Amino acid sequence: MKTVVLDAGTLGEGLDFSVLGRFGEVVLYDGTPAELVAERLRDADIAIINKIKIREETLRDAKNLKLICVFATGYDNVDLAACRAHGVAVCNVKGYSTHSVAQLTVLMALTLLHKIGAYTDFVKDGGYLAAGVPNRLIPVFHELYGKTWGIVGAGAIGGQVAKVAEAFGCKVLAYKRTPTDEFDCVPLDELLRRSDIVSLHTPLNDGTRGLIGERELGMMKPDAILINVARGAVTDENTVADAVLSGKIGGFATDVYSVEPFPADHPMTRLLSCDNVMLTPHMAWGALEARVRCLDEIIMNIEAYLKGEKRNRVD
After folding, report:
1. Comparing C-alpha atoms, which of 187, 182, 183, 181 is closest to residue 172?
2. Which end of the chain is more exposed for a tag (fewer CB within 10 A), N or C?
3. 84: which residues sit within 8 A by CB, 6+ positions away?
4. How far, in Å, CA of 187 to CA of 177, rounded?
């Protein structure tokens, strides 16, 4: 049996892919151009992918392919109808990155509230030494304590962020498709009006695409911080850039973009020099512990499939 990992280079350092050897031959590709996907699947029994697109044309000659394991929770890059037509099972992994994404979300809030970049730069650039005073309190920074934190999409990740926010002394509001007693659930408009920090954790679908646009941004406090660790298209990115540059919101942080990596004409390029903006390269999910957890789950998905069991199947 042959297992191919088509874009191992997107999975970072520190993973031991030799554990896949228990299933037979293993071939690792750092990356796979679209025109080579079909060729590399041709004699594979199992494929492990992250961002590689699987379409009808990539499966036509993959006569041995039995299982595709997605190294992620989202699987919109896989044509499930084509997989079903070719008898290929598809598995994803859920919940592996909850703590990793929540950690970056809170870090983003703390970084922007504390203006930490300005203070570390002041020391590194020699300003502290030259100033001759023992402390510096410019620019003004703020505590999390007493702030209202709005969670849009209070699932596993949003729920973990809520716990950390509450530990810092925040009042937490939640906007959830199905309100529960676990959170103080309010309509989205109310959450946006009341919150000092708004973090987005909702999946991207027809109901959430462009969820945060001009109308919604206009409801937010002028000093509020918006954090997106969901999907880029959950926001109207051009409108978000306008809101930041015009001072309609106090700060913005995002780890996700509608196009990844974003091109030179993307709205986020307008924010690259802004002190109240934090942009990261879709890395929230990828703490080493989270990636090891994900690989462990993939191993269990493969084992279950070979036993004739269904585990994390999405096909």
Report:
1. 183
2. N
3. 315
4. 10
| 260 included as an active-site residue | yes
**Topology of the domain covering 98-279:** Rossmann fold (3.40.50)
Q: In order along the chain (315 residues), what is the average pLDDT of each group of 10 residues?
A: 96 95 96 97 97 95 97 92 97 96 98 95 94 93 97 96 98 92 95 98 93 97 98 97 98 97 96 97 97 97 97 95
Class of domain 2-96+288-306 as given by CATH: alpha beta
pLDDT of residue 135: 93
* pLDDT score for 117: 92
Domain boundaries, the chain: 2-96+288-306, 98-279
Catalytic residue, chosen from 25, 56, 260, 303, is 260
Active site residue 231: yes
Active site residue 214: no
Cα–Cα distance, 47 to 64 (Å, whole number): 11
Which residue in the list 86, 114, 193, 282 is annotated as catalytic? 282
Separation between Cα atoms, residue 93 and residue 295, nearest integer Å: 9
The answer to whether residues 214 and 236 touch, using CB atoms and an 8 Å cutoff, is yes
